[in-house]
Amino acid sequence: MTQQNPNETVAQHIANILRRHDVEFIFGQSLPSAVILAAEAIGIRQIAYRQENMGGAMADGYARVSGKVGVVAAQNGPAATLLVPPLAEALKASVPVVALVQDVERDQTDRNAFQDLDQIALFQSCTKWVRRVTVAERIDDYVDAAFTAATSGRAGPAALLLPADLLRSEARAPGVVRSRNLGHWPLDRIRPSDDALAEVASLIAVAKAPIIIAGGGVHCGGAVAELAGLQQEASLPVFTTNMGKGAVDEYHPLSAGVLGSMVGPRSLGRHSSALVEAADLVLLIGTRTNQNGTDNWRQIPRSATVVHIDVDPVEIGRNYESVRLVGDARETLAALRAALTRIDLTRRHADRARLEECIATCWKRFELDRQEVATSRSRPIRPERVMAELQDLLTDDVAVVADASYSSMWVLGQLRAPTSGMRFITPRGLAGLGWGVPLAIGAKVARPDKPVVAIVGDGGFAHSWAELETMVRMKLPITIVVLNNGILGFQRDAETVKFGSYTSACHFAEVDHTKLAEACGCPAVRVEDSSELAYHLQRGLEEGPLLIEVMTDPAAHPPLSLFAKMDEAA
Questions:
Q1: Is residue 167 within 8 Å of residue 10, measured between CB atoms?
Q2: How far apart are alpha carbons 18 and 96 in whole angstroms?
Q3: CATH number for domain 376-569, candidates 1.20.1250.20, 3.20.20.100, 3.40.50.970, 3.40.50.10230
Q4: Contact 210, 236 (CB under 8 A)
Q5: How far apart are the first and last CA of the chain?
Q6: Closest to 143 measured CA to CA, from 13, 336, 40
Q7: Which residues pair with 454 in a beta bridge?
Q8: Alpha-carbon span 143 to 128, nearest angstrom
Q9: Which residues, in sequence order, are CB contacts of 321 under 8 Å at separation 6+?
Q10: Under DSSP, is residue 417 helix (H, G, I), strand (E, B) or coil?
Q11: DSSP states of 465-506
Q12: Chain-centre distance for alpha carbon 541
């Protein structure tokens, strides 16, 4: 229950409400100052970012790993506008973040006050919910509403605008005393009807070639164990989307890895996509069926029956007409498993040996295709070699975070999850450059005793290298691997494929990232010989923090379908 003390300010009362919602950290820059001071006074720790567009990404990374709401704070005006990109990422990626944003004093609205802006209009496109509080008696209602919006249904960001004078004013007793903790997600657990589940169970039992494509909703819904049970009990092959990476153990004989747009030469998808093409039943779980996850909506056969499980009813049928199972991934999969116990699965089990052999052959062919680059001793170093060295160090304790663009693709396409539930955190909602480091900081705050390694390109790292100081100051030992190829790789390659040339922005001047790190107090090493990779990666994971700048081959790119014809002709 939120206790109210005599002479308590609204800011102090907000801090107490946050504590009721189990908030331990606020990613902020000391504004709104009244709230931050009150929060710190009762033990809520501020993780003070340096760049105003990084706090939202930190809160995002924290929420993805902790299972709790990420809270970010910002000043009105420019800091508020810089929250738009990370909140938009959280909206698209279904991550609960509550933004506490200072607003101008109530009597200054629409008078061209300093840093006044229509912040309701600003946040309407990038949040599920945005409100401005003007009455002290309603503060409990509005904070609870923000957390409810963030954690219920399809999770996402909510913004609460707090006028500066309101925060200093005396708190008033609310009309209704609130006591519930709304700070964990998903807030609600719903599942489809028994009849709908029985229908899908029957479809699975009689299908000739069913498959599962698991998305980020499996992680969001805490459905990893239920998915593993379904895979095993019904003998179903499982693919994942980019955001679903880690939802299943990729060494399980029925796990076929990430698919999506990674189907070019030297990819697993080049071989495993045949299973999708032959499918007559596709079970989608917690996926937006977006462009990258379906290779431009080409992968799911038109002749296949599609069953879609999603907590958001609007996503079902968006791109593929589907049998609808509206519900939380964990509860729906648990109920579906129960329904399958009442169905004869002889056909599924009879086909298991063939499927396992087929999937094993795909992995073997993939390993053979990439062996040359994954074991290469060339200089500059191939990114595939970096991933191969990191693979040997992966355990279920390690969280791997990647920046957008090629960094994400190297991680998602080259690493193999050694256990179900392992976290591979990538900004795939909007895929903005520069979010790898702040996502990693948020993940480390959520699990301070577990190793976090961030893979970033030199292009993306330039957006966020000031946060090295945050990492050092807040004593967050993260291993940061900077793949330095001196270019914006995807931009160069995509422009070359589309236009036969690329713009002058693609190449950078030389930057010594080790000196940047050392200037912030972070140990750093530049690696130009691939034989040194294993030692420094191990050192980073065990000792941290450590920045490892790897001088990588600018000609290398992930095996995306966009480049397939170019690669085949090479």
A1: yes
A2: 15
A3: 3.40.50.970
A4: yes
A5: 66
A6: 13
A7: 401, 480
A8: 14
A9: 306
A10: coil
A11: TTHHHHHHHTT---EEEEEE-SB-HHHHHHHHHHHSS--GGG
A12: 21
Helix (H, G, I), strand (E, B) or coil at 535: helix
Reduced to 3 states (helix: H, G, I; strand: E, B; else coil), residue 70 is: strand
Q: Is-same-fold flag (10-168; 376-569)?
A: yes
pLDDT tens for 102-132 read 999 999 988 999 999 999 999 999 999 999 9
Two structure tokens written together for 8: 């308590």
Give the integer Cα–Cα distance in Å for 341 and 331: 16
Place of tokens 């499982």: 238
CB 31 within 8 A of CB 79: yes
Report CA 63 to chain centroid distance, whole Å: 9
What CATH class does 194-361 carry? Answer: alpha beta
Distance between CA atoms of residues 496 and 503, nearest Å: 9
**Is the N-terminal amide bond of 32 cis, ω within 30° of 0?**
yes
Cα dihedral 272→243→286→209 (10° resolution): 0
Q: Is domain 10-168 in CATH 3.40.50.970, yes or no?
A: yes
| Number of CB atoms found within 10 A of residue 455's CB | 30
**Closest by Cα among 391, 403, 377, 375 to 528:** 377
C-alpha pair distances (Å), 415 with each of 221, 250, 294, 552: 23, 10, 20, 17
Residues 6+ apart with CB under 8 A from 285: 212, 213, 214, 215, 217, 218, 223, 227, 244, 309, 310, 329, 333
pLDDT at 83 over 90: yes
Rounded to 5 degrees, what are φ and ψ at 484?
-95, 100
> Which amino acid is located at 570 in the chain?
A
- H or E segment at 159? strand 157-163
Condensed to tens digits (0 to 9), the pLDDT of residues 394-448 reads 999 999 999 999 999 999 999 999 999 999 999 999 999 999 999 999 999 999 9
Look up the pTM and report it.
0.97
CA 299/CA 173 separation, integer angstroms:
57
